[in-house]
Write a structure and sequence with these properties.
Largest interface: A-B, 64 and 56 residues
Order of helices and strands of chain A: HEHEEEHEHEHEEEEHEHEHEHEH
Structural class of chain B: alpha+beta
Strand content of chain A: 15-25%
Helix content of chain A: 25-40%
Distance between the termini of chain B: 36 Å
CATH superfamily of the largest domain in chain B: Succinyl-CoA synthetase domains
Number of strands of chain A: 14
Shape of chain A: globular
Number of helices of chain A: 10
Helix content of chain B: 25-40%
Number of domains of chain B: 3
Structural class of chain A: alpha/beta
CATH class of the largest domain in chain B: Alpha Beta
Distance between the termini of chain A: 10 Å
Oligomer: heterodimer
Largest sheet of chain B: 7 strands, antiparallel
Chain lengths: 310, 380
Amino acid sequence: MMAAVTDLMQRVEPFVEADVAAIIQGITGRTGRQHSQLMRAYGTRIVGGVSPYSDVDEIDGVAIFRSCAEAVSATGATASVVMVPPLAVLAAIREAISAGIRLIVTIAEGMPVADAVVALEEVHAARVRWIGPSTPGIAIPGVLKLGFLPDVSLAPGTLGVMAKSGTLSYEVCHRLVGRGFGQSLWVGVGGDAVKGTRFADILPFMLADPKTRGIVVIGEIGGSEEEELAATMIALRCTKPVFALIAGRTAREGIMMGHAGALILGNVGTVDSKKEALVGAGAQVFTRIQELVDAVTTGLEPKAGENTCC
Amino acid sequence: MMLLEHDAKMLLAQDGVPVPDGFLASTAAPAAVGAEPCMVKAQVPIGGRGKAGGIRRAETIAEQHQALAQLLGTTIKGHTVRACRVEEIVQGTECYLSFSLDPVRGRLHVLVSAQGGVDIEAHAGKSALLAADAAFTLGAAIDATRQLAGGIASPIRETMIEAAEQLVAEFFKFEATLLEVNPLFVRRDGSWVAGDMKFTVDDNALVRQPRLSDLINRRADAYPESALKLANGFDFVVIDPAGEIGLVTTGAGLSMQILDEIAARGHKPFNFCDIRTGQLRGDPTRLVRALQWIAAGPSVRSVLINFFAGITNLGEIAHLLVAAWKAVPELSAPVTVRLIGNGYHEAIAVFEAAGNPLRIEVDLDRAIAAALAPLGGAYR
């Protein structure tokens, strides 16, 4: 098992580079401008903004470009946070890919599934990482955030967090931070059915990252993402403790619960199916927030010790 | 969202997809007469209706009325039967055809069989069910289906290819995620009829699908959650009409979790709500609507509001909450508010200036306990 993890650590690059230079597509919109300021205040290197129809050269000290290609060639940015309306997300992703962007974070909720399928195919073909749609973002707490994860829930620490839900992860992490447990990496994957990055895609990075001592999974009803994660835990011989919360036990079959992906059909997507798979892979699974928080705080040391690896 | 069978059939029939003659009945003695014999099918958006007793065969009009009387108003997997489709009985070879999106890989999954029936999925893997997947485009889907149909004997093969080409075009036209026809009847003359149909479409695409959004708006009583979201921009789902605690919450995941937390404490939540505080933008309308719907819950005796506001200032939210609460005087149940985020002290000042009409908590578990306290009984 040690060999598998050591091998992984040598193979896997960081999920996101700490000094990554990012642009914002849609920076002149209300949301884009506000979050650009908040991301910069958090320490993120926002090196430019894209707004095809704007005639200003600068907003709040950030250079504005007419296209992604212009922004990338002027700034060398490799990441983009896309803050455009849902029906414009696909075009924005395509523009970012062709400009050479390597990491795309799209926050808009409501991207049509047919658009997401096309985007998925194109990011795969270009080997570009896409977080979204409808993600609150990603963060290396204390270093950077791409998106709008709230500062009150962010603190540097040893937990790797992957979450379908923004608000539920804010609540869980806020309580954990209050108990002294911050995060090494936080990735919101969003609540849609078709998405760029899934739980199972993130696991290798968290296993390889020596700062990550435990993994918190915020899942919910619908789809098969938790089951895929369980299969990957087994395949990668996951030795780090995994604490999972699955929301939606009270949901009714056939009724969508806010998130486009949160829909039970037949026996697919139920809390029980996910719990069984994750427990079978060695995870601890909870249905109440406080139970998860208590398990993390009794099962892990809050600060990384000397012997951080494995 | 899954369209009701009747609506899916009417929609696709407009484009020339052959369906059995039938009508929608919402009373036990409908004006339309229908065929003898006929099928009476409960209209609920779930699979497995037949096994759950939602489909009856009626030999006479009297039996049809009797079946309607028995089915209407019953509940199947949590869904009240508000209407039934009364439909002529079709003869032919029962086949099966389905197109579905594989969300993990972003591809189209195609299933074809010359043997349909209720247990088709249980036979998956056996020789009768032919499966393939294709790129998520109309052209690739048609190629894959033609290839699959090669495993079916003529003359059913030719009819199945014709049906598949027509149906998969509808799948892409309406941005569906599932279109399953089972049984698909193939007649001796080579014609076909869609006996039963499951049609699931993408809610996110409704804004650019005028025929679907028109359908939702026209039949708002059959699609209350989707119609409500189209009209108001946020999610509100009545979970239990007899629920005791109304919820005004934001964020789908945390809102679902709060339902679970309340249920785990032995109480019945009235509703699910994802108000999206980031979209309020100084307008209390969404909050007023949510409080009005909660006030209309006959058993609601307590209200819990929970906003974990990442960005929106809590002072602004407090102003909106006070305004909304004043605008819904019919709400007599006590209201507990848990707020967290920036501007907490500003929010407290706003509530104080308004005479503290709402109970404020900073911790979610304490807020849940406070909101459940007036209900007594099962609270642990």
